[in-house]
Amino acid sequence: MGDVKGFLKIKRSKTEYRPVCERVLDYHDVVKPRSDEQSRDQASRCMDCGTPFCHWACPLANYIPEWNDLVFHQQWEKAYDLLKATNILPEVTGRVCPALCEHSCVLGINDDPVTIRENELAIIEYAFKHGLVKPELPKKRTGKKIAVVGSGPAGLSCAVHLNRQGHKVTVFERDDKVGGLMRYGIPDFKLEKKILDRRISVWKKEGLVFKTNHEIKDKKELKGFAAVCFACGSRVPRDLKVPGRDLKGIHFAMDYLVRSNKSKKAEAKGKKVVVIGGGDTGADCVGTANRQGASCVVQIEIMPQPADRRTADCPWPTFPRLLKTTSSHEEGAERHWSIITRKFVGKNGRIGQIICEKDGQPFAIEADLVILAMGFIGPEPIKGLNSKDFTCGDMRRGQSLIVWAIHEGENAAEAISNYLFLREPKR
What range(s) does the FAD/NAD(P)-binding domain occupy (predicted)? Predict the structure, then answer.
C-alpha cells in the first residue's frame, strides 16, 4: 500500500449530509459528495490485509484492497477498470448498499472500518465525469435471442452479461421506465433517477433492447427466444390481517413509494403518519412522509430494539443486525420497538387510531395514514415454466439486497450461456 500507516494517521470520516432544514424541502440526494482528496485520504486507511474479509463479504467479490490502493495513488482509470470488472452498477451500490464489506473490514475489529462504499462511489463518479464509462460492445454476435422479463438489478445484470457475451437480448418491463424497484421503490433523495438513465443510455449503445409498458401475460409472447430469464422480483407484500384492515388510509409501503416516485404528490401533508416495519423500506417511507409535509411520523417495529454494537451472537466478520439511524430518521420520527399491532380503528370508513400492545399493555397511536412496510412473502406466480426458462434475483432467493440481485443476474447469465452451448448441434 502507498501508506502502510494510513490507518494510524487518519480516522474514518462520517458521511456528510445536506442540512435537514434544506433537504426535507426537496427530493435531491441528501449526501454531500466528497472531494478526490478526501477519497484519497480515506483509501489510505486500507491495510492491504493478507486475507481481505471485505472481499469475502461482498457478493460480487469486488477487488476492494486493490482499488483502494489505486485511489490512494490517484490512478483513477485503473481503479475504475477493476471496479467495472465485478460490478455493473457501482453508482447504485455505492449509494444504497448496506456495505456488507465494511462490516467485515479487518480494521473494524478494533477501529472504524474503511469507507469502502463511498470509495466505490468516488471511483465510478470520477469515471463518468472524465468520460471513462464507455459502451462495451461484444466482439461478435451468436445469433441467439434471449428475453429477460423484469428490469430490476437482477434482470439488468443478467441482460448486460448476456449481451456482452454476444447474444441478442430484449428486456421486457411492465412499468413505463426501466429500473424496477431501483426506479420506483427507492426515493430520489437516496437514488436520483438520472443516475439510472445515465447508465441505461450506455447499455442501449451496447445493443440492449428495452421494451417498457410491456407486461408478459402469456408465455406465448416469448415464442422465438432461445431462452428466457424471469427476474420479476419478490413483489407480493406481507399484509397485516387484523380487525379494521379494510379502513381507508392504510397502504402497502411499495404502493406508497411508487406513487410518490411517479408523481411527488403530497399524500401525507398535514397527516399523522404511522409506518409499521423498522427496515430500510420503512425508513424510506419516513423520509418520504417528511418531505410530503406530514404533521408527525411514528415508526413501530414488532422486534426488540437492536443493539448499537456487536454482541456475542454476531461476532466479526459476520454481518451484525445493529441499530440503524438513517438520514430519514434524523429528519424527524419517533421510533418504538417490541410493538404488536392488534387492530385498526376509524370513523366513517377511515383510519383514526392503531391499537397496539407492548409488554402486555395496550395503548393507542393516532393515525391518519398508515404504511405497512413489513417486507414481502414471495414473487407473483408464473405458470408453465420449462427447461429453457431461468429465474434470478429476489424472485429466486426471496427479498434481498441489490448487490445480491446483481450477483444473481450474473450467475443466471452464465447458466443461460451454458445451456445454449450444450444445445448447440454437434458438428
Answer: 145-378
